[in-house]
Design brief:
The protein is α/β, with parallel strands linked by helices. The protein folds into 2 domains: 79 residues, 3-Layer(aba) Sandwich (Rossmann fold); 52 residues, no CATH class. The chain is globular and about 55 Å long. 27% of the residues are buried.
Amino acid sequence: MKFLCDEMLKRLGRWLRAAGYDTVIDGVRDRELIERAVREGRLLITRDRKLTEFRDAPGVVILLRSNTVQDCIRELTGQIGIDWTFRPFTRCLVCNTPLIEAPPELWCEVPHRSRIMVRHLYYCPQCGKVYWEGSHVRRMHGKLAAWRANSGL
């Protein structure tokens, strides 16, 4: 599954990326969102009811009614059965590009006290962001695992 989140659901989009889903976050006009979703074979996730009125909307637009990220996650999981542990931390959270293993010269980006605990280092070849499995990632893994467990998958 590939997704397109409108600007209102930017945080949800980043969590979908964290779970490993190809997720674009865009803030263009409504018609352009629908056209992009259709053109790229993406499901458009929105809270904007007006987007469901477009001719191309059926089968493309997923309308969420929730306001908080937590509730949106629950609602989306209920609607389409998201596996929150699909391919965790394989995409850049900033730009959505698939991550690759980092070359040795990027290890200097990892804080010194964390280096002894880090086994793998990844980076985004598009925006250059470096990723490693620190405590923040372990906490995020815990959230993804809990959401999957609550989904019944």
